[in-house]
Amino acid sequence: MVKRENGLQDIIKRAKSGNQIAFSTLLDNFWNDVYGFQLKRTENENDAEDITVQTFSKAFDRISTYDESYEFKTWLIAISKNIHIDLIRKRKRSPFETDGNNEVIKKVLDDAPTAEDRLITEQNLANLLQHIKKLKPHYQEVINLRYFNELSYAAIAKELNEPINNVKVKLLRAKKLLAEVIKGGKQ
User: What are the recorded GO MF terms, alphabetically (predicted)?
Assistant: First the structure.
């Protein structure tokens, strides 16, 4: 966990400049806070996870609007609350309505491989496939699309019919979970 406030502000500053490693660090440090908050609100693991992914997606998309006079965690929780409220409203509407929300897909350059990336590529294929099967299906799918089908973020977003930032967050989360599964298997 990022303890020092100056360290956190430095990470946020790097994230504002588009640094993917900084985004990953923020995701790692605040995922449990947002997920736990939503799990209490929704009492549903899948909804809590989906809302958490959307929260980080929206936060990363709008990181430039973050005001340092507020705590970062508070900002994330506020985004999370709004997404949950929107979800409740959408569920109250007819299930056949669409909101026509077409997002512009942005081209994103990946930074150097993360520790999770390096660990994943070190595994032999058979063991790696066994580890991937331990993940939830939507994480398996995003890993398969990225690493086995070698699709770009934009192509994965199109394939899953999801905003590109959701894909980025899911992939970050999937890589982290897969790395934990792999490390657990080595012990």
Answer: DNA binding; sigma factor activity
Say how many C-beta atoms besides its own lie within 10 A of residue 156's C-beta: 22
Q: 19-63 pLDDT, tens per residue?
A: 888 988 999 899 999 999 999 999 988 889 989 999 998 999 899
Instruction: Sketch out the chain's domains with CATH numbers.
Output: 5-92 (1.10.1740.10), 115-186 (1.10.10.10)
- For residues 164 and 161, give the distance between their C-alpha atoms in angstroms, rounded to a whole number: 9
93 exposure class (CB count in 10 Å sphere: 0-12, 13-18, 19+)? exposed
Tokens representing 54? 């959307």
Say if CB 142 and CB 156 are below 8 A apart: yes
Q: Which two tokens stand for residue 65?
A: 């609007």
Q: What is the pTM of this model?
A: 0.65
Phi-psi sector, 161: left (phi>0), alpha (psi -120 to 50), beta: left
Cβ(147)–Cβ(133) below 8 Å: no
- Residue 118 is encoded by which pair of tokens? 């390096």
